[in-house]
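Attaching the record inline, Q. Sequence:
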Amino acid sequence: MNVRHLLILALASLLVYTPGSTWGAPHATDEERIKAWGVDDESPMGPLAEISHIVMGPAPDRNLGYPLMHSFSVAAAYAPYLGGLLVTGKFTAPGGEYPYGFEDPVGALRNLTIIAHLVSVLFAMLTVLAAYSAGVFLWGERTGLLAGMFALASFPMFYYGRTGNVDAVQIGFMAMCLASFAYWLRDPRVLKGMLGIGVFGGFALATKEPIFAAFLPIAPAVVYLRWTSVRGEVPVRSWQFWRPAVYGVGALILAFGLGSGLFVDPERFFAHLRFAQERVAEAAAGEVAFSANYPNTVAGNLALAGNLLGYIVDSLTLPGCLLAAAGIVHSVRRAPRTALLALCSLTYLLVLATTARIGYLRYVMPAAFPLGLYAAHAVVSAWDSRHAPLRFGLAALAVVALGLGFLRGVDLTHAMLNDSRYTAGEWLSEQAGEGDRLEYHGPTQKLPPLAAGVGIRRSTPYLGGSVPHDRTSAKAAEIAAGWQERAPEFILAMPDYTSEAGEFHSHSLPPDAYAGLMDGAYGYGLAAEFQTPPLLPWVRTPGLDYWLVNPPIRIFVPGQAP
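Structure, as predicted:
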């Protein structure tokens, strides 16, 4: 590998992913506003809460959604900052209630969120470097460089590589595991590479267990290729034959046990497994209210396959997917061993389709990563061909795929830096006075930054992301009566992850109530609306899994003309 190329790709990754990493940091003026904007964004307090549960004892509302590797990684990154606050006296008497011992909770929680987001930036960079490494090990330097570029331009990384979700950390460890596997494929005779497979695979599983489906082809491939490479030299029943596999499995178990929390807090680990099994069963049964469910019928399976394929196209672009398919075919024909990483994508998608039976953009990220390697392989192989149409045709596809990927990333970055909540927050800071009240709907974490003196209240209870809300006309009338009684100075409507397709408000706000706000039937009128126009509308940037970035916001005030 070329060290200069590694440094160039590392610097490019930081330059591409770091802008926008401040997106979603909360303006935590009270305990209701401490969460980041992103759905399932664990920052700022989630990692610290998990460490506290281990040290001080578990709380009843513990988050069991994921193993602990992400929390451990982020908490380690928090340590220098928190240590500095302790030394300077700005973090005294740490506790579990707001302001958590911080002298300046607004600044501290914002900075912790940014640190957590930078951990994702780091792992996004490691993903790019792992793509480069895998390409070099399998096909050479030029393929490695192009593979790094395809990983860098993958659309979902422009979001998940900047937020406090677990996905960037998971993909980073998975990518390093597959790069280690690619290294081992060059010479199955040696031990080197197996430890990388075990350690990075274990940490990937310790971040999010469903990634196991991407690793299913590795074990049989290791045994078979080991046998074919030393056949006649090393007896199959000998320690020498099985030593690499045993070391790899041992490293995986150790890494998973430490990273997942199994060795540290086994009670929490098994509670997490039970919770995860329940959620998968609910998703498969169509009981998750705001997720599309696909029945196990011919039509349902075709729809699910189309959904997953669409997300892969969103990740790599259509030209990128065509190149990936060409690269896989070329590998199967010329060097079947190098096609094994493509099986990782296939097994992952098959397990996803047959278990949870739901699809989101972030769910297909583990399948999209190996495909980018084959897209790069197709381009470099074609460039070495004597057929000019093939050379320039595939080169043109690569230019379009990478160019479109980066332009979509620029458009999303612009939306994150100019999120509608920033301008809405500035408007409210000018309009709202001390003691003014703002009513809203849905999760509190979605709100724009608000001054400490502005009171907030949900107009109707929020039941979470798995329970349908009452959206009847009677419920709308009840909510409207509450507005008349309480007379809040502001009512804010915006979509969130519970919103149905085409809705510009939360699922918990009935359509009739929203229509009444829009037509002035309740004595409120539209005072302001915010949504930053796209920077590059012609690139048709794909949507994210929910209304995450730059949602349309409408603010209503009493007596405003409709």
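Residues 3-21+118-287+298-416 form one domain. The beta strands are 437-440, 455-458, 490-493, 524-530, 553-558.

More tomorrow.
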